[in-house]
Amino acid sequence: MQRPRLLLPSMWLKNKQQPEYRPIDIIKDIQREQGVEITYNKAFRAKETATAMISGTHEEGYKLLPNYCESIKASNPGTTVILNTTEDNKFKRIFMCYGASAAGFEHCRPLLGLDGTHLKAKYQGILLAATGVDANGSLFPLAYAVVDAENDDN
User: Fold this and answer.
1) Which of 71, 91, 126, 142 could form a disulfide bond with 130, CB atoms 3.0-4.6 angstroms apart?
2) Is there a domain that residue 3 lies in?
3) Is residue 125 exposed (0-12), middle (13-18) or buried (19+ Cβ within 10 Å)?
4) Quick check: helix, strand or coil at residue 130?
5) 4-37 tens-digit pLDDT
């Protein structure tokens, strides 16, 4: 990936401190600080590059997912993690239930709430969550999954 020439340290720092720093703000700051006009597309690419430098890319995160799942299981006894990938080792779906949540559900009211929400990031999907209700009437997180569609398989 080629770095934009106008990715300034001040812009990188501002992007780290303010994730809502928009490309239009970048255009204004570059114009004010450097006296150079850049296009919206160039500002957008600069923001994407700065974000990748700060947080890493989605691809890097997905590559770390199997090790993350193993470390979760090792450090949380009784935890269930199921990670499914395609034949070419690409993410398909994940299910996670922490051992402490599974044990704590025994003390909840006999009610299970299921809900899902669509993910709007680069790689879309659906976040499914299962929650119980504890003795105080508060939601008690039980398990969650990230899937590609709401269907019987998932």
Assistant:
1) 142
2) no
3) buried
4) strand
5) 444 444 555 555 566 677 888 888 888 888 888 9
